[in-house]
# Entry
Amino acid sequence: MNLVRFFTQSLYDTALLTTGVLCLVNFTSVYLPNKSLAQINIHDVSSWLQTNIFDFETETLFALANDPVVRIAIADIKYACIELDLTALFSFRSIEGIMNSFSENPEDDRKNNWTLLREQLNISRDFFKPVEEFSKLNRHAKPFGQLFSNRQICISSAMIVLQRYLHYLKNGKAKLDSNKFPEINTVEEFGMKSF
# Structure
């Protein structure tokens, strides 16, 4: 269904952009083969999300969501689910935003910030390789067909990093205890369903 919305939106964008008009296509129902209408919510991304990642009570999660880095990371994960051709890009952007928060100075070395993120959140370098690889073409404006399994890995990666970052914030920005949060090397290690 998302593919139908995506291609329809692309058609409208192509036709209308040259006239100076922008619009968003919004599907509310679909005509089924049995000639009935079924209501749909094209932006319902619940099936994409691994809800077992977030181990917080609602009140705690809302309090932590006031952090601007967290708000942007959450928005990027939402767009990763909705914008099918940009899943890898928005997933990586969510992670990159969290990485940038490990420095007060925007001039700091990115390599150092990545090291701090990995050390503070107990996440290995290997964990980031799939989402980095899948997002590279997106980040350089080279479209490619993203498989559902690749999208799921990217989104789950961003959610796991966000989950660890939320614990980091809850702990007063202290390094996560490796007994409670052992180093993670792959999305599958976190208990994600097999891709």
Q: What stands out?
A: The radius of gyration is 19 Å. The first strand starts at residue 29 and ends at 31. The longest helix spans residues 148-170. The chain has seven helices and two strands.
